[in-house]
Structures are given as C-alpha cells and as structure tokens.
Automatic annotation (TrEMBL):
<dbReference type="GO" id="GO:0005737">
    <property type="term" value="C:cytoplasm"/>
</dbReference>
<dbReference type="InterPro" id="IPR023401">
    <property type="entry name" value="ODC_N"/>
</dbReference>
<dbReference type="InterPro" id="IPR003462">
    <property type="entry name" value="ODC_Mu_crystall"/>
</dbReference>
<protein>
    <submittedName>
        <fullName>Ornithine cyclodeaminase</fullName>
    </submittedName>
</protein>
<dbReference type="Pfam" id="PF02423">
    <property type="entry name" value="OCD_Mu_crystall"/>
</dbReference>
<dbReference type="InterPro" id="IPR036291">
    <property type="entry name" value="NAD(P)-bd_dom_sf"/>
</dbReference>
Amino acid sequence: MDFERYPDSPYLHLTRADVIEAACGVDIVGTVAEALMLHSAGQTALPEEAYLGWTTPRGDSARLLAMPGALLQDGRPPVVGMKTINASLGNPARGIPRSQGFTLLLDPETARPVALMEAAYISAMRTAAVTALAVRHLAVPSPRKLALIGCGALAQAHAALLLRTVPTLRTLALHDVAPDRAEALAAYVASLPEGAKVETVPAGSAREAVRDAEVVVPVTTVTQGYIEPDWLRPGALVCHVSLDDLTEAAVLAADTVIVDDWSLVRDDPRRLLGRMHRAGTLLGPDGAPRDGVTARPGARRVDAVLGDVLAGRHPGRRHQDETIISNPFGMSILDVAVADRIHARAEAAGLGTRLTL
Ligand code: NAD
C-alpha cells in the first residue's frame, strides 16, 4: 500500500444546519431513553472522558473535552464514536456560542470515520432529553412551573424540548446574571409554537426563580454552589445540568439523588458530587466511600442511576413531597446514539457533503 496515498475513504460531513434538518426526523427523547436503558443493562462502553483546561491569550477559561463511547446492543453491530466539545468563556461576549465541536462516528468493522458532524446541537438536545426523561419519571405529576437559571444555549434547548414534552407547564421563570440573555430567551419562547401556552417571568435572582417551581434546571457556568435546600419547594425536582449550582447542604438534604453514571461522577475531581465523594460526604450507590476515604457523619448515598429508573429497577419518585436531584454528568453514549440516528436520516435525505480523508 502506498503510504502517502490512502485508498479513498469517504465520510459524510454534516454542518449544524444539516444536523438540525436531519434531527427533525429523529425521536431524540426516545433515542436517549433507549441508550440510558442499554447503559443500565451493561450494553455500552463509556471510558473516562479527557479534560484539558487552559487560559486563552485574552485571559478566559477554556477547555477541551474528548468523550468516546459505544453502544453494544446484542445482535447488532456496535455503534462507536466520540464527541469533542470545546468551550471558551469569552465566546458569548464575541457573539459566538460558548461551546462547539464535532461528533465522530466510526465504521464498526474498519474503525474508519463514516461521519463527522457539528456537536453542540446534538449535545444540547440530548441533555434536554435527559431532563425531559427525568421530569417524566421523577417530577411530581403535572408540573406547572419550570425555573431555568442561566439563559444560554442549554436553556434554549430545554425550553424548546420541555414545552413539547411537558404540556402542563404554564410558567417559565427565567434568571440570568446577564438580564439581556433572559430577555432573549423569553423572546425565543414566545416564538415557539407552544410558547403561547406559557407565561415567561423574568426573575431578579435565582432564589426568586426557584420559588414554587416543581422543576428547577440550572444551566449556568458557575463553579460554586448557591442553591440552598430551603430555596426548594417540597416535591421539587432539580435537574442539576451545570453540576455546580447546588450547595453541598442541598445535596445532603435531598430525599433522593439520581445520577446518569456513577463512575463518571466518581472519577471527576472538579464537579460538586465528585468533590463530595472525595471529602467522604457522598457515598456510591453501593453505600461505600471512596477507597482510602472515611465516610463523614451525615454522609449520604447516591440512590440510583437514571437508566435503572427508566428500566423499572428503581421506583423513582416515592411520594409527593420528596425532593429529588437528578445529576446528569453527561454521557458520550447519548451523543453517539443520537448522532447515529441523525447520520442515518441525513444519508436517507441526501444531506451533507461527502469528504475524504
Ligand atoms: P452558555 O454560556 O450558552 O449559557 C450559560 C448562561 O449562564 C449565560 O447566559 C450566563 O450569563 C449564565 N450564567 C452564568 N453564571 C450565572 C449565575 N450565577 N446565575 C445565573 N446565570 C448565570 O452555556 P450553555 O452552553 O448553555 O451551557 C450551560 C451549562 O450546561 C454549562 O455549565 C455546560 O457545561 C453545561 N452542560 C452540561 C451538560 C450535561 O450533560 N450535564 C451538557 C451540556 C452542557
């Protein structure tokens, strides 16, 4: 074989517009539910993700995430891929999204790339789909008020998906440290087909937004917790998407804590639950502290993974007044599962550009 000239190796390149068009034909919530249940049945491969942080030349925090994953469903070829999603906190001020990247799918036989697509749309929608499933299985019946704290890209994805999947919602409380982002989100909500059914209420503080909300979704970029346990109404579900908004006291006071994958949460030293595990205040689902760490008095256990709730192995909500935290670390297998369906739709619809290595 000629080292300098590979045989043609075509792959499909999908821009964000292609991804969005193809996604119209994909049931993202259903795809994510299937992937969560495969994960709970042990039919996935989910290696630890790689994290590289740096300070940009202009002084902003930036990071690269590389997240490989595979679905290993019995009787079907594996679905293998990787998301790399990369962010600079300075981007919104430049008028560009904070994070963006690629999701890559490989041929399961040759391990060659078959598709490369814009990652941030799928990432936001699969994350919102996890929240939609958490609401379906863990919220009080017929929730009416949703609080979105942080009004960026993830908040938009949540508003779009939750208005479709939670038809009882009547109030969206919106809070952002940048009030113009909350205003822009309110305008976006008003432009949605379901937007007429809800009232958007700007909230001057996170505490005001959270008051009386049955569903609370923090989607900020904070690294220090601020949501205290007494801010939450009895029966609240907190979908802790941005992972660092709850205080340790709020986690310890919750009746039930659900994660998407314990090993990702456990192995991460940066986010709240991983830090609590290192400090001996959070025990794994098996009730064990971290190796070499002594459990502190008052430490609490993680109750279950979301896939177990979906598969009926954990009851989910047990009573009306239970406060529940769903802490979705974010699993590559969800991006890979959704990307695989989007790739199939794009091939069928003739979307994208064929490139070669
Ligand atoms: P973004 O930059 O588009 O939006 C974040 C918004 O939060 C901004 O409008 C910012 O002004 C606001 N904000 C920052 N600090 C705040 C505070 N203290 N109070 C209120 N608002 C505040 O970011 P995004 O793409 O929407 O992502 C939001 C978060 O979701 C990020 O932390 C990201 O890492 C996380 N995320 C989690 C998952 C997951 O699976 N768990 C997946 C994707 C993104």
